[in-house]
Amino acid sequence: MRILITGGAGFIGSHLAENCLKNGDEVYVIDDLSTGSMDNIRFLQKVPEYKDRFFVHINTILNNDLMLELTGICDVVYHLAAAVGVQTILEKPLESIVTNIQGTEKVLEMCNKFKKRVLIASTSEVYGKHMHAPLVETDNIIYGPSSKFRWSYAASKLMDEFTALAYHRTKHLKVVITRLFNTVGPRQTGAYGMVIPRFVEQALKNEPITVFGDGTQTRTFTYVKDAVTALIKLMGSNQATGEVFNVGGIEEISILDLAKRIIEMTGSSSTIELIPYEKAFGKDFEDMQRRVPGVGKLESVTGFSPDKSLSFILSEVIGYIKNK
Ligand SMILES: NC(=O)c1ccc[n+]([C@@H]2O[C@H](COP(=O)([O-])OP(=O)(O)OC[C@H]3O[C@@H](n4cnc5c(N)ncnc54)[C@H](O)[C@@H]3O)[C@@H](O)[C@H]2O)c1
Fold it and tell me: From CA 78, how far away is CA 19, in angstroms rounded?
């Protein structure tokens, strides 16, 4: 199969590309390297067996002609390119909205032109400020005011979901929407604020671990290879067409306990430093206190749900960062 991965030089995209290449697929990547890196995929370009079926285009998904060419060539499209992470969104608010809204519109327009099946990477952020658990796909959505720019990431991804569903309803385009919960593993960078690589890097340098807020906020982490398995299974399932799925892990933990666990696992002498949100992100920020995925729908359609423990995920990330 010929597969187009937008954002294929990114963290999740590179694992997806690796998996598809191993499966014998022909893989096309488009990535502007804004948060991705050639380091994530260079090793794949060096595998002799992949030489004639791995093609990388360093370019933007907003490039009409290239997207036309690539979508025309490929059988299916995984749309992962996005402005990712709260830090990116706060630093580059307008650019982020353009990438996430116009970029996704472009991908959907091209997929519709050639009637190519497309999977959209959305996020657990779309749920907003819930306290209950688990979150299920039919839950209401609760955001703060538009003056708090942090919500623009969630709102832009939600608009992507609406646009994809509208293409499905009106044009019968085969779309699948995945709401990824905090996905972690080797190759994720801490440079854009992602919590686990950031904490591990601080712990390995015996620097203070900087916890934003009071650390009582919780998250549930998904191992990247589990997430990739879920994406591939959903792409292959007719039952998934036109539907929204949570893709998330199994173990809820507070950020303070996460910091303690990482200190313990790395044998670090780091202390923990609490930093008020306003100092870390400015006035445009407010946090989501809790995020636990309900994955019953994913499991019932694919027979699969992520099952890697947090200890396993942390040991993979620690090993990766140590060896980098
Ligand atoms: N990692 C997570 O925890 C998580 C959680 C929820 C959702 N997601 C979603 O999964 C997808 C992949 O995220 P990731 O964690 O791999 O982040 P990432 O930043 O590593 O990947 C995004 C990739 O998109 C590329 N990109 C950005 N703008 C582009 C443009 N205009 N044209 C071409 N490429 C562009 C970046 O260079 C990067 O390689 C994103 O859509 C993200 O919103 C990730």
Answer: 13
pLDDT digits (tens, 9 = 90+) for 83-142: 997 788 888 999 999 999 999 999 999 999 999 999 999 999 999 999 999 999 999 999
Record the tokens describing residue 34, joined without a space: 């804004």
> 268: closest CA among 215, 207, 314, 190?
207
Answer whether 12 contacts ligand 1 (Cβ < 6 A): yes
Q: What does the alpha-carbon distance between residue 134 and residue 182 come to, in Å, rounded to a whole number?
A: 14
Mutation choice for ligand 1 from 84, 178, 223, CB with most ligand atoms inside 8 A: 84
Maximum CA extent, the chain: 58
Residue 258's Cβ-side half-sphere holds a number of Cα atoms within 13 Å equal to 29
In CATH, what number does 2-185+222-250+292-306 get?
3.40.50.720
- Given the CA of residue 30, which atom of ligand 1 is nearest to it? 33
Given 28, 78, 127, 153, the catalytic residue: 153
Instruction: Return the domain boundaries, the chain.
Output: 2-185+222-250+292-306
Q: What is the pTM of this model?
A: 0.97
Run of H or E residues at 87: helix 86-91
12 C-alpha vs ligand 1 centroid, how far in Å? 7
Residue 84, phi then psi, degrees to nearest 5: -115, 140
